[in-house]
Amino acid sequence: MCGIVGAIAQRPVVEILLEGLRRLEYRGYDSAGVAVLDANNTIQRTRALGRVAALEEKLQQQPARGMVGISHTRWATHGEPSERNAHPHLSSNHIAIVHNGIIENYEELREALISKGYHFESETDTEVVAHLIEETLKTESSLFDAVKAATKQLRGAYALGVISPDEPDTLIATRKGSPLIVGLGLGENFIGSDVQAMLPVTNRFIYLENGDFVKLSRHSVEIFDTEGKKLDRPIKESKACSLDSDLGEFRHYMMKEIHEQPQSVQNTLEGRLGRDTIKQCIEGENVLETLQQVKEVQIIACGTSYHAGLIARYWLESMTDISCSVEVASEYRYRRQPQRDGVLFVTISQSGETADTLAALEKAKSNKCLATLTICNVAESSLIRESDLSLMTVAGAEIGVASTKAFTTQLVCLQLLVGLLAQANGDSLGVVANIVTNLKKLPVLLESVLDKDAEIEILAEHFAEKNHALFLGRGDQYPVAMEGALKLKEISYIHAEAYPAGELKHGPLALVDNEMPIVAVAPNTTLIEKLKSNLEEVRSRGGELYLFADKKVGISQKDNIHVVEMEDVPETIAPIIYTIPLQLLSYYVAVLKGTDVDKPRNLAKSVTVE
Ligand code: AGP
Questions:
Q1: pTM of the model as a whole
Q2: Distance 517 CA to ligand 1 centre (A)
Q3: What is the mean pLDDT of the chain?
Q4: Which residue's CA is minimally distant from atom 7 of ligand 1?
């Protein structure tokens, strides 16, 4: 999703900006651009469709040089991906602006600006902001005041970086809804969408809050609220390290990350398990007292993280007396919900910056829940900072857009949370000891599933020419099937849907023929006999089945049944283990189809707009 990098320094900033953009590439984008104020105090802008490498090439042919500048990677929302729509946007070579977010009232603002004689070069909502700042500058005394006045007219979400030849020693920034961080250097200062962009130049950061306005010069950073009151925001030293961008023996980050899962699960468990107890591993205040008061858990997340939440509901309700509801953030945030007592509000997110999940958290806080807890992979993210409690996944940086190791480590954390809730409430069923025993087996069991790699690669050949696929599971394997279908959709562009296997006969069975491959996950759980009957219903209607089945359940290879035999695994961790073959299957299908596995079309890693 859109990424911003800005710099004001005593040295040329173009290379700093380009390196920052390269470090934001993992977020997903379709074009990139940079604007600097040159020695003649003129805005020099360069933009390119496609990768940062294309922008670099243009800059090599026509170099730009300046000590203050802004840059951007764009993920199209308003207007197609093109050079014309790429940021920075200008207003009569007098204002240059980069923007992350969506301006909801841009159409009415655009009409008003056109009637005042402004000419638009792009279809973006961002260009509206550039002209609006230009317009307000007519009555305001400084660029800072003009940005403040202009943003008063905006509805929606934004993080903005603004420069102008009028004030060549100033970089103005502000945020509302979209993340923006200030990086503090020596005689130089920076802005960026995340710390990764600025790690080569500093490790000291100020995390801007909604409504903050910042005036950066080379030697100072001043932050003000909407009323113009000066704010004193804390400076944080980041422990984040640079993304490990070394692919090693792997062709794609997704495959590297699939294979890292035994280690990332091990890292997530490290120091958190006792002999038959779970150590207190949730960060925050009054954790035990809070867990003892929980009557209900409400989980909110998006995409893959939402699927992790769905699995956790099965776990929580089967292992404790605490009820659980799970919902996607984009729906929850706009839905009225009656207030209930004792609700632990849990958000799950790899990035910790997902706009819908953040908005849902804000809503939950205003609804006065018992406490908010985030399960997240990025320690300094917005969700972590906004939540009362946090439980970290230790997956390491995930670069592939399709989430893999973040998902399995989220499941590990959710199981720790279920165990901690049981433990805090006087676990009488031996739930905690069972969780601990099984989690300890997990890394080794994950290694053994990865050994199925070659077998699954062969299976993938059956899918490459297909247009649709169905994924089936029952109980806590149904969300595993949903995750499998999402993986296939996002990286191979094959339409895939997941169903609880018992639901087939209520409609989807009509789709079954030999052009519709049906994938099912079949561990040896209490529902296995039910699942087997559902699979028979498919087979007798000519469906082609691809099963990941426990070797003890007695499903054997036949004409239209392809079976990958799985080891017998404990029921509580089966969803984590059965996720792996589905990740591998999607990966190999995508490779056969020749898609851009790590950066699938239209998608972004960090979804910072609504
Ligand atoms: C998963 O493969 C996707 N890339 C996507 O569904 C993702 O899980 C979702 O956008 C939520 O992101 P988050 O975990 O960073 O909040």
A1: 0.83
A2: 26
A3: 94
A4: 303
